[in-house]
Amino acid sequence: MAEQTSPGRALGDRSLPDRAASKRTIPDRAEVVVVGGGVVGCAVAYHLVRRGITDVLLLEQNQLTSGTTWHAAGLAAQLKSTYSLTKLATYTVRLFEALEDETGQATGFRAPGSISVASDAERWEEILRGASMGRSIGVESRELDMDELSEMWPLMRTDDLVGALYLPDDGMVSPVDVTMALAKGARARGCRIIEGVAVAGLETRNGAISGVRTELTSGVASGAGGDHLIETETVVLATGMWTRHLAAQIGVNVPLQACEHFYVVTEPLDDLDTSTPIVRDPTNYTYFKEETGKLMVGFFEPEAKVWRLDGIPRDFKFGTLPEDWDHVGPVFERSCHRVPTLADCGVQLFFNGPESFTPDGTYYLGEAPEVDGCFVAAGFNSVGIQSAGGAGWVLADWIADRHPPMDLCAVDIRRAMPFQADNGYLAERISESLGLLYAMHWPFFQYTSARDQRRSALHDAMDAAGAVFGETAGWERANWFAEQGQERAYRYSYGKQNWFKNSGRECDAVRNGVAVFDQSSFVKFTVRGPDALDVLDTLSVASVDVPAGRAVYTQWCNERGGIEADLTVTRLGDDDFWVVTSAACQTRDWAWLRRHCRGRDVDIADVTDEWAVLGLMGPHSRDLLSRVTDAALDNESFGFGDAQHIDVASVTGPIAVLAVRMSYVGELGWELYVPNAGAVAVYEALRDAAEDADGLELAHAGYHAMNTLRLECGYRHWGHDISDEDTPLEAGLGFAIAWDKPRDFIGRAALEAQRHEPRTHRLVQFRLEDPDVLAYHDEPIRRDGELVGRVTSAMWSYTEDRCLAMGYVTHPTAAQPARPPVAPRVVGDATGVMYAAPNPPSRFWWLGAGPASAGPCVFTKQMAC
User: How many C-beta neighbours within 10 Å does residue 569 have?
Assistant: First the structure.
């Protein structure tokens, strides 16, 4: 994870043979301007010129590496929390291995490997699950017994450890040297790098970047020019902890914040040399690294210190912050437990330097949703070195091709929300997110800081009913409902957590009775005007040219056929539409819609915060709803996909409601869209009607139950099961495509080309047969020991009494079976690896008993409720 180093070693020799190039006159124009001369900015420039974009200008306000790169530890670790992040980090290691030979510039790369240790069974399970995922990308690892661990690391206490994992290919570099190598490689292919020139502001025109305004700081010859406007259509903000305030000048939201980050370096110690592996002891918030015969000890304390909320001074270069033993002392004591010699050896250096962190602990990449041509690569949460190569690669491809080269939703800047820019929010949340880098990454984990950012009008009613809230996109959402007297808190584990039975009762109510969900966090856009139909029908693969009062499930695809959005479009009138999408996709989907409405006679608005949504779901939902409205609710009068304005009787009088017969849980039900002012009255009317009816009980259900129910029915979730790299055909959503609609739609050509070809990549469902094994995401799927795919999402099914999962299975030759395939079951081991095996046909691919019976893996038709 993140790791800082000794400034005495980090600076090294910064000179380059062509350093004089940095003192030439600032150009009037560049195709791409990269702002920021740290390792990330130089990596982006390096990869841009490798892609053939040679008119690249990199500007650094002080000197290369002078922000935070210079004091980084330089660790090049491969294993991360997700498949995509691991893929990027693995690329970085491979790049650093070869960079010195390519450029002739020393990088200091060496690969002593790394060891992660666990002092309890749950931490060990987390480590093993990560290793299993990593092996699917080629990250080699093996378990160490305690004797071998002691031999490799004699200074370590091992008597309280339950496991240790060794990654032999993990490495380290000199941060300054590797940055200089990237800069040299970029210069060699035509990039211009100018130091001592700050970007004072960004210019836009018609919603797009048009230029950058510069001013001199220091270190540049007077002939280089002073205040200056550089015209460009593409800017990359690789400006670290300066990014938030610079981007805000043009309305771009990059919620990150600097924190103080600490490490110490000891006096020389015996039993350390350049072959000593890096050690991570996350339970004690500590990492250890050999540093020229000394030991560097770095910390990720549970509660961090935020630094300079009001902005970072421009002249802060190679800067350090004051010591704070009171803050670090408790964590240092824990590190002494793992390496007892620390308690007696001398400390040569106490280092404190700032790093930028994000609210969710993951960095930002990509084109800003607010301004075209403004790309961001910032907020690296102290993993800038080990992420730089991969970030540079994918961002350069993104700029060159105008789309990302792989699924990058985990790091996409379009996940950021406006409320996250608030200083008060950042002060609370960033303090927690830094410490969570070494905390347990529990399934269903919920942040505790900076909560209650967004509440629905139904929040207090759900709270009174026993809701235990989680957070998504700032919304407080009822994830499950506690029984009376039950603790309303999470007790985390990798097994069945303390809400397991509660969620089961909620699922049963939806399947067999009626339950209400607070779905107010659903994002709601209005699209109105003469061009509304043309815009939405061009965006949508389904036809939305339907009669008023119909809701259509559809995908919005890119030109490659990949799914950019998964949502519903409801036609309310000839030129009046209602678009509903998921809470986490608000920024992303709004940007996609807004960009495709430019120059069109259409008005769009985000009305999410103005409307509450009650999901009334279950076979008894019609009975209950009919008790509060005179509207006809039978199938003929109100069919699936219909949308009607109805009046709901309440104690305050009739309330106008937009009722849409749509379901994400596979049962009869209605989504009731109510203006906030009437939401509680509608909820109370439904609750009271159920209480007054014999044999009719209204249950409350949360998002954990919804996740189970949608998996049982095969409903996909954008960001997990589908992404902009997956097509509707690969995702089993071909039924939604209106191939015969007269209006062309984005992605049609790519989908037509794929339509009649055998699938090489297909989303399928699985069922684990072992009732004690749970999957979550990114678990590898193997056939005969060969990797064939990975899990995208999973959840326990109370109907099947097993864990269900979705995952993509690939076959490079797309061979078609001569006869209908036999549906396989799949068996899993404790680390989450799944193996396909023959089994009688079933509704699901089965996931079961062990690798001994593993056999051929073939495709089978997926069924949905």
Answer: 25
What predicted TM-score, i.e. pTM, was given to this entire model? 0.93
- SS (HEC) of 435-496: HHCCCCCCCCCCCCCCCCCECCCCHHHHHHCCEEEEEECCEEEEEEECCCCCCCCCCCCCCC
Residue 603 to residues 124, 306, 546, 576, 596: CA-CA distances in angstroms?
Answer: 53, 41, 20, 10, 12
Strand partners of residue 554: 567
Angle at 35 between CA 31 and CA 39, to 5 degrees: 115
CA 306 to chain centre: 23
Q: Which amino acid is at 512?
A: N
Helix (H) or strand (E) holding 32: strand 32-35
DSSP helix/strand/coil, 503? helix
Question: For the segment 737-783, what is each residue's pLDDT rounded down to a tens digit?
Answer: 999 999 999 999 999 999 999 999 999 999 999 999 999 999 999 88
The beta strand positions in 650-798, using DSSP E, are 655-660, 669-675, 698-700, 761-768, 780-783, 786-797
- The label of the residue with tokens 């069924």 reads 863
Q: Both tokens of residue 367?
A: 């084109």
The amino acid at 344: D
Rounded distance between C-alpha atoms, residue 422 and residue 418, angstroms: 8
Q: Is the dihedral of CA 161, 166, 170, 173 positive or negative?
A: positive
DSSP labels, 125-172: HHHHHHHHHHHTTT---EE--HHHHHHH-TTS--TT-SEEEEETT-EE
Q: In which residue are the tokens 């095996």 written?
A: 837
792's torsion region: left (phi>0), alpha (psi -120 to 50) or beta? alpha
**pLDDT tens digits, 634-658:** 999 999 999 999 999 999 999 999 9
Q: Determine which helix (DSSP H) or strand (DSSP E) holds 100, and give its type and residue range.
A: helix 83-103
Closest by alpha carbon to 179, among 68, 57, 298?
A: 68
What is the C-alpha separation between 325 and 227, in angstroms, rounded?
A: 43
Angle between helices 39-50 and 384-401 (to 10 degrees): 40
N-terminal to C-terminal alpha carbon distance within the chain: 42
CB 297 within 8 A of CB 278: no
